[in-house]
Amino acid sequence: MKWKVEDMEQLLGMEEYVDTLLYPVSVSPMDWDVKWIADQFWLEKVSSNVEQNLKGRVFLFQPLCVARNELFLDTTIPFIRQNIKAMSNRFPHRAI
Asked: What confidence tens digit (pLDDT) does each residue in 49-71 have?
């Protein structure tokens, strides 16, 4: 499900059926370029397609696009882990 209020309410009522959490993360070098932007759109399109084809079984996190910089390991990785842990605790059938 995408991050819309109606979808979130529906999803929270179907927690026992969701067996996959999909968290698309795009990491770029310090300088963003046209190729990275194209890759980001491709990742979002593939993720949305998976979510549509497996509707009701997949929870699609909001895509995250980050730059790899000196704070990447100290801030971004813990942020991603925190998001995954918070959402995965909502679903009884999960594997991390």
From this structure: 998 888 778 888 888 888 788 87
Backbone angles phi, psi at 21, to 5 degrees: -110, 120
Tell me, yes or no, whether 93 lies in a domain: no
Residue 94: inside a domain = no
pTM: 0.68
Stretch 7-31: mean pLDDT: 76
List the alpha helices (DSSP H) in 1-96: 5-12, 34-53, 77-88
Looking at the structure of the chain, the number of domains it has is: 1
**Structure tokens of 19?**
């067996």
Q: Which residues of 39-76 are buried (b: 16+ CB within 10 A; e: fewer)?
A: ebeeeeeebeeebeeeeeebbbbebebbeeeeeeeeeb
